[in-house]
Predict the 3D structure of the following.
Amino acid sequence: MKNKSLCFGFAALLALAFTGCGNKSSNESSEQPAATSAPGATVDAATAGSVSGSVKLDGTAPRMRPINMSAEPYCQKANKGPVVPPEVVTGEGNTLANVVVYVKDDMSKYSFPTPSDAVPLAQQGCMYDPHVVALMAGQTLEVKNDDQTTHNIHPMPKDNREWNKSQPPGAAPIDDSFARPELGIPVKCNVHPWMKSYIFVFKNPYYAVTAKDGKFEIKDLPPGTYTIVAWQEKYGTQEQTVTIGPKEAKEVSFTFKASGTAGD
Amino acid sequence: MSSTDNLRNVHRFVILTCGSTVLLLMAGALVTSNDAADSVPDWPLAYGKIIPPFVGGIRYEFTHRVVAGLVAILTLALALWLARSERRPWVRRLGWTVLALVLTQALLGAFRVLERHAALSATAHAILAQIFFAALVSLALFTSSWWQFEVPLLDDPGSPCVSSLAASTTAVIFGQLVLGAAFRHGAFGIVPHIVGAGVVALAVIWTGRAAKKRFARIPSIRRSVVWLHATFGTQILLGGAAYWAILASREAPQPSLAYVALSVAHVLVGALTLAASVILTLVCFRLIRREPARAHTHAQSEVLTR
């Protein structure tokens, strides 16, 4: 009798356990066909304008803690001196790199062909290069492993299909794409947990990622009023509104305020 | 081999399997704390090989798989041993149950690797690990010589009865482990886990006080309460320290050593706290009469204190 009670008690605990894990949270939704732009008007090159400018940091870039690569001797050897996470990369005159500048507005009345050229994402010295990648939905992302060690490439999107692929040294590049637009998809290498990158997927070609000089240019914009957004990994987003007339080239500048100092 | 020797050996083998499971829990916790859960994208092979390159996060994930394989083999051997030599049918059934649990756990681990619904599958994987460990600890108690001796039953003069309090505490601790796993794997925030710690504290204190007050002279109950209090107290301290480590390493480029050590210890002591509570519950069910209270004699208590 007592033993039966014990069995019942244990079964009750099991039942309790299984009811506790019924949370259906999923960041993956059903996949849809690759985003090919619906037929629509094409942008008239004769009237199209552009927006260009630069992004700067107001203040001192935070001092980041150096990455400890001792878990992987190859990675340590591949880098001369300590490596810090490229969260805030500044150039001469405090210009900011790795800022994604894009047009926020709905451009669905136009059709844009998916570019046929692949966007590269390299793994060099156990770091991603570039740190921030932008491409169009359906465009090929080409991931290369230039290191003499194994990596895994693991983008973790919310609106696209999640994937995780291994890439040993000398392996062929991995080609993949994202079907739907999505901003700031985190990418990780779980073999080397410090390796982080972001992928931005757009429906239209109106985006740019700043290099170390902080400069960007968005070309072939039809005349109109647009909200231009600048995203920076640590400092978030800023927006500005700009009106572009026919053949007009407008300049827009963004300044992010340095706040807090990591690693101090 | 005599029947007594066989019983003793089975019990030792269960203890060995329990010890290996503690190592497995540690290996699993190291995978999560080192952010290495997805470092091997394939299963059952690793990078298409039996032995993958032993670098970076792969070391943690592969070690976890190897220890899991070892525990599965031990559990299979245990189930077979019990099936051959155990006279109690319900213990034999429990042997098969733990085998089913470890196999389900392996499939859940494969699902975690291949399907990557991280918050859900990793939380379920962590919870099933605790259930498996608790089942093995129960089996260790059931195969001990203490469990198989005839013992006079005790009456519980208080209400609610200590057996019910201990069972409730086990359920509350288990719930708290669910909340902890959900927080660790990103399904919930920290608040439910902190609230849960408060509820567990009340349950542990209440049960401990009742058990000590009513059965102060019963060594098995007293020892179980001491174990429960010791593990829970350690767990509270480790929980606070692990949360501090999370906050302190928010800006760090990778998991810090302090975070890894404290979070892994927190997971392990959480499992030990559940085990202590399961033991207390089972000891109470074994010793305390469940029928309406009847006065027990002083002589009966004397027998039990020996």
Summary: Chain A has one domain: 49-257.
